[in-house]
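Before any further analysis, backbone shapes were mapped to integers, which produced the following:

***
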Amino acid sequence: MELKAHICNELYLFSMRVSLWVLFFSFFSCSFVQAQYASVELSSGGFSFVPAFTDENPNIIINAGTGSKGLFSAHMIGNIRMGSLNPRGFIFITRMKLIDKKLKLNIGTHLPAIQIDEDFQVDTFFAQEVTAAYPLSEKFSLSSLYIHGKGRNNDLEINLLAINGHYGFSNFSFVSQLYFLDLDQTYGVAETISYKLSNQFELKGFLNQTISSNDFRWTVGLNYHL
């Protein structure tokens, strides 16, 4: 009976792997064909909208999307564990412009956001977002992000608010972030530094200090724009 249960479990995990990879490649292929942007990053950590949840293990981070020129846009962010090449998570985002002047205001849905642990336990989430951006000068702008997320097969529910400052000069880009999360009263500061090596390659560094838990994390990565 134990052997039968083990075989059934392995078959289940294998089917989950296949299903997730089919889902990923189907979306990525469609996005890439129509994409206005796509990139692959080899990073010492994994992406999260909540800096405190940044994965500390090496990840392959994939971004693709239709850009933001039209009224609607579609985006995908994928994280793959570099050690095992197993997926860690995918986020599929659809956004719509509400204001497209000097002040830019968008609303969006994350449908779905998927998280996969090492044992292929899958958690899915539905989220709504509101983003706003306003340039203060040619080199400096402010933006904000609000996300409300709720688990579809779990009890997690979060509200995230992030305020960002964007500064760029020469080949450098800096994004400073102050964020608040209502889960365990989490708050902190984060910094993303990018350096453009060429039209296709970019070095990225990320620092996060979660003030509420005194947790410090950092990652470095090499981004290739397709």
